[in-house]
Design brief:
The complex is a heterodimer of chains A (117) and B (199). By secondary structure, chain A is α+β, with helices and mostly antiparallel strands. Helix content of chain A is 16%, strand content 31%. Chain A has helices at residues 6-15, 70-73, 91-95, and strands at 20-21, 35-38, 57-67, 82-90, 104-110, 114-116. In chain A, strands 1, 2, 3, 4, 5 and 6 form a six-stranded antiparallel β-sheet that branches. Chain B has eleven helices and four strands, in the order αααααββααααββαα. Chain B has a two-stranded parallel ribbon with strand order 1-4. Classes of the chains: A alpha+beta (117), B mainly alpha (199).
Chain lengths: 117, 199
Amino acid sequence: MAALDPKAMGKLIATGATTRVDAPATKPKFKIGDRVAARNLSPVTHTRLPRYVRGKRGRVERVHGVFALPDTHAIGAGRSPQWVYAVTFDAAELWGPQGRGAGRLTIDLWDDYLDPA
Amino acid sequence: MAQDHHDDGPSDVALRVKALESLLVEKGLVDPAALDLIVDTYENRIGPRNGAKVVAKAWADPAYKARLLEDATAAIAELGFTGAQGENMVVLENTATVHNLVVCTLCSCYPWPTLGLPPTWYKSPPYRARAVRDPRGTLREFGVELPEGVEIRVWDSNAEIRYMVLPERPKGTEKLSEEALARLVTRDAMIGVGRASAP
């Protein structure tokens, strides 16, 4: 195995390495304005679905494109590309009465993290 | 105080990093010059002055600002700022009625090409927990008191998008050059825990 050299490192710093998938084969499940609920999942392996949004209802604000799903990608189980959305939640939905007046929170969620609501 | 313990030697973390580096180099996995390049890049070349140039240009040039809010990755690349942890950028505009705040609750995701590496507090569990649950209180601790009518919008960069805040342009800066404007833009203002400095 070749050593990580300055040339390869320079290229990585300059261009990066996105997990975005261009020209996706599937259509997004949701569109801007759709009401969605974050699934209540508790995997023991890697996920990017934080506990504080699980089971909460929000609304799709942006459609970001298609990216590898970290849950499978991180454990070598394939990239499972799927759509990612910016989903916005009211603070009161996330935190209860103490969240009132705390505005809104937006978080990026993959298709597998969402149900229609 | 540190000077009372000058014979303690390097910290545990520093020793562990040195041991890891030695192992990686001895096993032929890493060329030490690659590590020097990383350190030099993020200590000396890439930092929040890049993001400040983006913000100043957006303040000075309405067409650029429109492009930045429409497709931040491409607009930032116009100024030459591309690469790792900046592949998918979104810029959020602060206004008189909306204040955006960025956090990564899961770890430390941060837009490196424009802001450099994240400050330690950004990676700390207290910031990550409190920015989402009590953003107004968190901002107050940073010295930012928001009027009641201003809506706070928190953005959790848990996934692949890297967020940067376009702070409000300070008043009384109409005659300043882009270079002078850039000097008013702080790192904290681009995370959303501060405001741009007054001229």
